[in-house]
Description:
single chain, 3-stranded antiparallel sheet, 12 helices, about 5% strand
Amino acid sequence: xxxxxxxxxxRRIAILSQLTAEQVAALNEFTRYALLSxxxxxxxxxxxxWEFTGxxxxxxxxxxxxxxxxxxxxxxxxxxxxQFILRSRSSGRQLKLGITHFxxxxxxxxxxxxxxxxxxxxxxxxMDSILQRYVAGYSFPHAAFDYVVEHGGFTNRESTILYxxxxxxxxxxxxxxxxxxxxxxxxxxxxxxGTRPRLTKKQILQLKExxxxxxxxxxxxxxxxxxxxxxxxxxxxxxxxxxxxxxNYALQRRKxxxxxxxxxxxxxxxxxxxxxxxxxxxxxxxxxxxxxGDEEKFSLQQTQIRQSLAAHHISVKGxxxxxxxxxxxxxxxxxxxx
Length: 338
């Protein structure tokens, strides 16, 4: 195993400056997904008044000389790379915080704040490992990934974190984290030896839990986008129309209009139905990519949306459906008014 070494700030900046915009976006989506997963699986805030509702990452925070889009800020106006969105369970109050201000602004116990900081540091260490592998000459193991895909190694396993990370990094030719690459090469060996086992009941449950977590993260991303539209001046009536149109768009060409409303419901479904619910949620997110278009004030939201869709290997195609056009008109009128 390679020893994980934390990069200095200057060294990290130097390596990031060598990456393309697409590679930076992929790294930040890797970080965002990992942070979201930590909040959901480690339940950091379970004994506090706060719930975690979203995360926004500035992909160009470390590139001050070539920064694009809007900056992110803590509620104290400090510029941020990672902006965590918290909501009070008792009052509904929302906070936008950097990781170092959880205790100061949300009165979150010091022990919990330290646990969260340790989790963030752990993920940054993983990202540093990927950057070090990149400068050492490693690239994405396309041959291994292609072999596994062509021989059905990911069939019924498309929801796994390994598959999603492979999809994300293959598109931009970044090396995988070492344990991910070892797992991928193990799949190759199993397929060549004919020992790739069928999914067990436990593995199916784990896959459904992964899908449920993914669905939950997408739902939180949608909730955050809708809140930001409201903050930008979209009326409650128009926001209701946008939400309805988004759901209708997501359900187009589907025989059933069945929808789950809570992430926990997904684990009770069959694997195929769980995947269908995730596909619907992804299509709903694609709806917002279509309606926000090239509006400058929503450029950051667009970046986050497209990163999430790219991580699931989904491209956004144009649409002339009534719901999309109606929502686009609302956004256009909002921009014209401001």
